[in-house]
Design a protein that fits this description.
Helices cover about 50% and strands about 20% of the residues. It is an alpha/beta fold. A five-stranded parallel β-sheet has the order 2-1-3-4-5, with helices on both faces.
Length: about 130
Amino acid sequence: MKIRYTNEDIRNIESNYLAIVNEQEFAYVIVDPSITGRNASKNALISLEVENIYDFQDTKSLLENINKIKKQIVLILEISELSAFIQLKKAKKLHKSILITKESNKKKLEIAIKLGINEYLQKPITPESLSEKL
């Protein structure tokens, strides 16, 4: 007897597998000066059943707490906080980076890409759009 899975079944299996793998391996760090932006990113991660989420208003507060984060970091940051990316890259704690911005300033995006940002998302963030980048 052959088992048939629907596309929805396959998506659910993949999503559950990714959530288990991701929560075991990484810490998810959000750096965004906007409380609304931080909450949107955090809620998207929570809806994807991701754990180990840390959020900071700015690079300074992240760096003050960086030693508490023992895992490799998936960084989700607002474009104004590119210095957080640079600092984590220097500390070799960075696994992946996702730049989130409401701006469409191509010059700033080019700079971020040249610095080594892995992914880019334009606000507003949805669980689906974030899931594609994780």
